[in-house]
């Protein structure tokens, strides 16, 4: 929503309403054409009303780590605008803050001065009730953090056992002003994705990460790869988990010629199986080569007597000081 209160907007609003009625009449196939014709690219922001703008912004910035960017107002609202937008005639000026919420749509926060609208939050099953869901890499850690900040968690995280959203964990929480919001996580994807659908839902976990200066530090990247080897040689589960968090991104993807492992759990499971089958074997580096944020590791795997029973090469993509992608190449035996 954008607050342009000139009377000339009536024609635009009338045209938008007419377009909406036409869209409703379109068939499923026509809707795609209509969307392209309308020029819709994606969701820019979601808007919410709050009783106290400063307190809401403090919550979003200090607790959730979001960044307030722009502010408009206070803007007086004329009678015609209030009538068109179903605003109580006695409600005062509006102040709007746009907040960057990480990777995805922004949040537009509204505060109406001397608000004469309803002070009661809609019930979950009321028409118009809504919520915002925030993606997190580790939902249990996120819940503990919110609890430490005094945030009310509604229930406990629940992981969907089957169906289209199998593997998705979620839990609701309540903001200081009483709005219901959600944490959600699916580091290994959702059930429906396993069938390789033609269209997949957008997800912030598939974000494009901006590279930093540290990503091109050859010494740091070499150390990351050396710690990668420690992970694969570590047999203590607790110590291995600590290293996994230090070295790999939570949604790390390991691509082998036979399978793809996603996230800590998949990779750790494979490591345990490999160690169980080869109790006396260890990985060691033959050489490590860096090229900006790409690192190539030539390795060998074997016992003390025969350290190179198996050899190969790993290719790492390192961003934000963690391994995002790992491509594994195993040398073919002659």
TrEMBL record:
Residues annotated as signal peptide: 1-30
Record carries keyword Signal: yes
Domain annotation VOC: ranges: 42-186
One Pfam family this sequence matches: Glyoxalase
Keywords attached to this entry: Metal-binding, Signal
Gene3D superfamilies recorded: 2,3-Dihydroxybiphenyl 1,2-Dioxygenase, domain 1, 3.10.450.50
UniProt cross-references to SUPFAM superfamilies, sorted A to Z: Glyoxalase/Bleomycin resistance protein/Dihydroxybiphenyl dioxygenase, NTF2-like
Family annotation (InterPro entries): Glyas_Bleomycin-R_OHBP_Dase, Glyas_Fos-R_dOase_dom, MMCE/EMCE_epimerase, NTF2-like_dom_sf, VOC_core
Coiled-coil region(s): none
Metal-binding listed as a keyword: yes
Matching PANTHER family: BLR8189 PROTEIN (PTHR43048:SF6), METHYLMALONYL-COA EPIMERASE (PTHR43048)
Protein's recorded name: Catechol 2,3-dioxygenase
Taxonomic lineage from the root: Bacteria, Pseudomonadati, Bacteroidota, Flavobacteriia, Flavobacteriales
């Amino acid at each position: 929503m954008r607050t342009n209160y000139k009377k000339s907007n009536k024609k635009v609003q009338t045209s938008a309403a007419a377009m909406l009625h036409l869209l409703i009449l379109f068939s499923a196939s026509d809707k795609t054409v209509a969307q392209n014709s309308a020029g819709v690219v994606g969701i820019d922001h979601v808007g919410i009303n709050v009783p106290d703008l400063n307190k809401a912004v403090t919550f979003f910035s200090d607790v959730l780590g979001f960044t307030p960017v722009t502010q408009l107002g206070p803007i007086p609202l004329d009678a015609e605008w209030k009538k068109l937008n179903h605003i109580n005639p006695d409600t005062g000026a509006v102040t709007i803050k746009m907040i960057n919420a990480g990777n995805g749509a922004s949040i537009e926060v509204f505060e109406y001065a001397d608000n004469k609208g309803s002070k009661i939050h809609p019930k979950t099953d009321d028409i118009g009730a809504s919520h915002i869901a925030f993606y997190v890499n580790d939902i249990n850690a996120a819940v503990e953090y919110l609890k430490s900040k005094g945030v009310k968690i509604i229930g406990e995280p629940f992981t969907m056992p089957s169906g289209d959203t199998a593997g998705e964990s979620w839990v609701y929480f309540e903001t200081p002003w009483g709005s219901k919001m959600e944490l959600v996580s699916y580091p290994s994807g959702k059930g429906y994705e396993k069938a390789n659908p033609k269209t997949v839902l957008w997800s912030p976990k598939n974000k494009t990460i901006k590279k930093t200066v540290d990503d091109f530090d050859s010494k740091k990247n070499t150390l990351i790869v050396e710690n990668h080897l420690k992970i694969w040689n570590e047999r203590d589960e607790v110590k291995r988990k600590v290293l996994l968090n230090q070295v790999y991104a939570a949604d790390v993807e390991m691509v082998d010629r036979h399978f793809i492992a996603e996230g800590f759990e998949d990779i750790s499971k494979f490591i345990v199986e490999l160690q169980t089958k080869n109790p006396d074997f260890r990985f060691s580096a033959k050489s490590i080569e860096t090229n900006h944020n790409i690192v190539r590791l030539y390795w060998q795997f074997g016992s003390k007597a025969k350290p190179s029973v198996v050899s190969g090469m790993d290719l790492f993509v390192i961003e934000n000081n963690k391994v995002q992608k790992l491509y594994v190449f195993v040398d073919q035996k002659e």
